[in-house]
Amino acid sequence: MGAHLARRYLGDAETEPDPLQMPTFPPHLGLPERRPRVMVASAEQLAEARVPLEQRDFCAHHLLRLLRCRRDAFPLPWLCHELRHHWDSCQHHDYVMRMKEFERERRLLQRQKRLRQQEA
Amino acid sequence: SEMSKDLLPGPYPRTPEERAAAAKKYNMRVEDYEPYPDDGFGYGDYPKLPNKSLHERDPWYQWDQPDLRHNWGQPMHWDFDMYVRNRVDTSPTPVPWHTMRNHFLAFLGTMLIMFVLGEFYPSYRPVGPKQYPFNDLYLERGGDPNKEPPVVTHYEI
């Protein structure tokens, strides 16, 4: 897990993305058919449900269904396991997308360095 | 209960007879009796006992007063109330003091250095930042509703 840290701090920091300054490249560079992410739950619904800000992401519709089920099925939590799985699966795909973004940034930085070296 | 004048502490003993009388008054041997030095602090002839707390006294011996580990008539330390078992403990440590201090400072120094290093070289997972809808939750984070928010769109990948 520390290979990217070793490359950034001990190797060359040019080709390692800085997560605080991401993204540095235009989103459609190299990926012409990128679709924007769709937000299913509305901001008013999330505000009415008083969902914490950290959880108002693109998986919030699953979370709203889960919260509704938990409220209805209290105190039996095992009735909402399927909805919980849908929310967890959505979060997992979101995390995988974040990993892919990082890797895309890294490859674009390497390509940028290669092009700069070829010019020089 | 009234104590007679000769049972109370008196002035600093100057002659050997006075020393013997003071030692007898405090139920001590003349060889063991050592008064505090006469430097104006008002100790008088009170004996100077070793600065050992009650933790160091034998816990298994049948003392007359077991909680104070004290026998009747035994001379009490000037700071007896400080050396009581609830308070100051002078029992020897299993390891010498400077060894303990060095180990502690080494640990503390290492922890502080690592925390400072972590401030300048933070550790993170190799993932991009989390993406939020509605222009990165502009209104929810306290953005001005009258102003135009900076447009932020996120894409699938």
TrEMBL record, chain A:
Its main location: mitochondrion. It is a peripheral membrane protein. It comes from the Eukaryota. It is found in: Mitochondrion inner membrane; Mitochondrion intermembrane space. Keywords: Disulfide bond, Electron transport, Membrane, Mitochondrion, Mitochondrion inner membrane, Respiratory chain, Transport. The keyword Membrane applies. One of its GO terms (cellular component) is mitochondrial intermembrane space. Belongs to the complex I NDUFB7 subunit family. Accessory subunit of the mitochondrial membrane respiratory chain NADH dehydrogenase (Complex I), that is believed not to be involved in catalysis. Complex I functions in the transfer of electrons from NADH to the respiratory chain. The immediate electron acceptor for the enzyme is believed to be ubiquinone. This is NADH dehydrogenase [ubiquinone] 1 beta subcomplex subunit 7. It comes from Ramphastos sulfuratus. The lineage of its organism: Eukaryota, Metazoa, Chordata, Craniata, Vertebrata. The gene is Ndufb7.
UniProtKB/TrEMBL annotation, chain B:
Belongs to the complex I NDUFB8 subunit family. It is a single-pass membrane protein. Residues 1-20 are annotated as: Disordered. Its main location: mitochondrion. InterPro entries: NDUFB8, Ndufb8_metazoa. GO terms for biological process: mitochondrial electron transport, NADH to ubiquinone. The keyword Transferase does not apply. Keywords: Electron transport, Membrane, Mitochondrion, Mitochondrion inner membrane, Respiratory chain, Transit peptide, Transmembrane, Transmembrane helix, Transport. This is NADH dehydrogenase [ubiquinone] 1 beta subcomplex subunit 8, mitochondrial. The gene is Ndufb8. One of its GO terms (cellular component) is mitochondrial inner membrane. Complex I is composed of 45 different subunits. It is found in: Mitochondrion inner membrane.
